[in-house]
Amino acid sequence: MSADARTVLQDLLPDQTASDLVPGAEGFGPIREDLAAAPVLKGGKTVAWAFVTSDFVGTTGYSGKPIHTLIAVDPDARIAGVRLVKHSEPIVLIGIPEAKVRALVEGYKGLDLVAEAQSGGTTHDVDIISGATVTVMVIDDSIIRSGLKVARALGLGGLAPVAAAAGPRFEIDPAAAAPADWATMEGDGTLRRLSLDVGQVNEAFAASPDIRAAQRALTEAPETTFIDMQVALVSVPGIGKAILGDAADANLRGWLAEGDQAIAVFGQGLYSFKGSGYVRGGIFDRIVLIQDDVSVRFRDRDHRRLNGIAAEGAPGFTEMDLFRIPAGTGFDPAKPFRIQLLVQREVGPIEKVFQTFELAYELPPHYLRQVTAPAPEPQAAPAAATPVASEESQAQAELWKRIWLDSQARIAVLGVMLLVLTGVFFFQHFAVRNERRFYIFRMVYLAATLVVLGWMFNAQLSVVNLMALFGALVTGFSWQAFLLDPLTFILWFAVAAALLFWGRGAYCGWLCPFGALQELTNQVARKLRIPQWTLPWGLHERLWPLKYMIFLGLFGASLMSVEQAERLAEVEPFKTAIILKFVRAWPFVAYAVALLVAGLFVERFYCRYLCPLGAALAIPARIRMFDWLKRYHECGNPCQICAHECPVQSIHPTGEINPNECINCLHCQVLYHSPKVCPVVIKKVKRRDKLAASAVPDLGRPPAGHPNAARVTKPSI
Fold it and tell me: Where mainly found (predicted)?
């Protein structure tokens, strides 16, 4: 460790107490020269090694800043203690009790890193906290990867550093062909098999510590096939053609992107290797591919069913499926791997016990060819205090890509909502023609915003996002941090585009879940005949600046302390009402409810006068390129109907619309086209009707030139 490379551990360790990290510890020893790790001492002996995750792996969270976790690993490579030391996560700071997140982190105590290394990081469960998914995933990823790096660097638990292969390297030979019949492929290792009968499975569960597992043994004959599962690496061209046939293999190649691999899994017997859990959750939880530290869990998007087998002599399988291994997982098809099968047995109404069985797979040598090994590079120094930039960049990229892939359905829903809203704005002339239909559409859209975007997806923007963006621009911008939350990322891009076209109203009036909650509750209040208050224009105009003052105050506070500004941002009730769905300490709930109650009498009370996010979006609202809202010369003088009916009083008595306050609800456009309300339209309709009436001939008078025309006289009065 060079003298000028200061580590996070050096900055944080002086403020830590050893006994808080490892019970009974008396202090920390000096930090090693070659590794950012310090001995944890007890009775003069080293009982563990302490380090900070950020010194070894990327830990950038939602805030754009690192999440520093202090970990102690004992000589057996078990986590002896773990503490969340420092972070700037806004979701945690202002939405979720700090104790809840710290308890989750401390739950990693006792984790066996040797088992994690052998299983590819799959032996533990991740407890996701609602509203902090990104934060928890970053913490989990950093604890496991940094723990394995340190344990290997120090040789703890028998783990050794990952060394580059000394011998020749191999890659798939695209010219290698596979046998045409099933039996030959079984014999040469192209296909690998796991076969279990009922007797073997009962015996495995009989050894379970839970005696209920043995008591619920399968009743079929012991020799009955429980599962007969076979696997082949069909991304190898020769194997794919032999097993799938030319047409299906061509479809497979079209499905796989560059660097992707695929396995075919076949099964028959009492037990399904797929189960039905993937239908509900999208994850095939009964099988996992493991290769060294790499573990791949398959999701429904990486799955396709097979309709048949081209190879001669194939058994009559009841399940035939393809599973894709995405590029970037670290999987090497030329190296051995294993498929772990999870077998479950119910021991109670909702309780299950599990046993695992493994199928080992190694590609036969004749499918491989040797790669010319590059000249050996000079031996690198021991594990550095700071991770290699390219390695960490790749690891962080894999994390956000995994989050985006897991969010495909939600991204699609948001995309549809944005597309529909864009269509409404571009074709508002047609959208607002029918007042009742447009009202129903708006209420349905706001309900979707509240329930789907808000309560289900937690896609609620916040002024905290803007403070995090500004902090990132000042301290060193990185896309990685903002890509960790795909819906927020997409929404901010959509808002930025909308500001150029329509101003802030596209988000505030249609896509803000809390704004939708206010308007929907106000509509209910109107149905219940709760009186609506319209503030005098002078008072209303003087209350407008409050939200701008709040925003500027928060922005100024963020320049001194982001953490303090994030706490002050509790003026936003979004986390209480939307993210946590009112499940929070009573003062926060009382504040959010008070704002909603005020909104029952004054529509969108919070949006009008207090919202710092609305103020932040209103500042650039005047740069919009187009003016979509149509007005008549008579608007404001003499007509005041739109000004009186504007839900947020954004229309001045003189008739002009204030773009800083308009939420683009399009109610004024409904009135603009209304033949029942708008005086200008009413006048036009009357004039048109009068012209139409004058154009109709008098059927009682003969036309000029008629013989009887002269005899027609006026009726007497």
Answer: membrane
Q: Which two tokens stand for residue 47?
A: 């009982």
Which pair of structure tokens corresponds to residue 197?
Answer: 């009968």
Task: Report the distance separating Cα 608 and Cα 546, nearest Å.
Answer: 9
Say if residues 662 and 617 touch (Cβ distance below 8 Å). no
Averaged in consecutive runs of 10 residues, what is the pLDDT profile of the chain (717 residues)?
68 91 93 92 92 83 74 94 81 57 87 82 59 67 86 89 64 90 93 95 88 89 95 95 93 90 95 71 74 74 88 92 86 91 78 83 92 54 43 59 80 94 90 90 95 89 80 62 79 89 88 94 94 89 90 86 76 86 84 94 93 89 75 85 89 85 89 88 86 68 54 44
Cβ distance 104 to 129 under 8 Å? yes
Q: Residue 27: name the closest of 11, 47, 9, 8 by CA.
A: 47
Tokens of 550: 């709040």
- DSSP bridge pairs for 41: 27, 46
List the strands of the sheet with 79-86, edge to edge: 27-28, 38-42, 45-52, 68-73, 79-86
What is the Cα–Cα distance from 125 to 127, expressed in whole angstroms? 6
Identify the H or E element spanning 578.
none
Written as one string, the DSSP assignment of 245-266 is -HHHHHHHHHHPPTT-EEEEEE
CA distance 655 to 671: 14
700: helix, coil or strand? coil
Handedness of CA 482, 487, 491, 494 (dihedral sign): positive
Which DSSP helix (H) or strand (E) runs through 295?
A: strand 294-296
In the chain, what's the furthest Cα-to-Cα distance? 134
- Which is nearest to 464 in space by CA: 558, 544, 549? 558
Structure tokens at 288: 């996992």
Q: Which of 312, 364, 321, 309 is nearest to 182 (CA)?
A: 312
The candidate with the shortest Cα–Cα distance to 547, out of 612, 591, 599, is 612
Gap between the Cα atoms of 60 and 54, Å rounded? 9
Please, what is the Cα angle at 665 between 407 and 489, to 5 degrees? 25
Whether 36 and 56 have beta carbons less than 8 Å apart is answered as yes
The CA angle 592-597-599, to the nearest 5 degrees, is 95
710 DSSP assignment: G
Q: Please give the Cα distance from 373 to 417 (Å, whole number).
A: 52
- ω into residue 14 within 30 of 0, thus cis? no
